Amino acid sequence: MVRPRGRHQELIGELYAAIASYLRRERLGKIWPEVAVYLSPRHIYIPDLSFLLTENLSRFADDVAIEGPPDMVVEVMSPSTASRDKAHKLRVYYAAGVPWYWLVEAESLLVTEYRYTPDGYLVNQIVSPDDVFNPALFPGLALPLAELVGAPPEETATDSADSPTSAEQNL
Length: 171
What we know:
3-stranded mixed β-sheet, tt1808, chain A, 4 helices, 6-stranded mixed β-sheet, 9 strands
């Protein structure tokens, strides 16, 4: 398995720090970087970030793995993980009942926030790197990703293949 690049790790760290600080103030729950999530015997993942509401903290009682669906999962996508995060994991997290799923593109800083509905995940918002991400799950939290980790590198012809098209954004 290819190890994540520095920007990927920095982005996880900044997201974790901002959300953890917010959660301490608001007392809504807890967030962890890279802990095991046991969804079924066939589906055990280690998302970049996992969040549990206070009332669901018992799912992480053993301090080893979250048993059952977290209330939110964040995957920071690299080119090597993007297709798996956007397709396979999205389906598995939905089937397991994960209420919120964020996909963050490490290079472009584009954020897609998905919300669970009975008919499938709904794209709640897509936030460009020039905008501030205001997660629906965390009222009052503002995440200016470009400020936190620096502006995305200038897009090149090879980078644009990994960016969503207009049709993909209008899910």
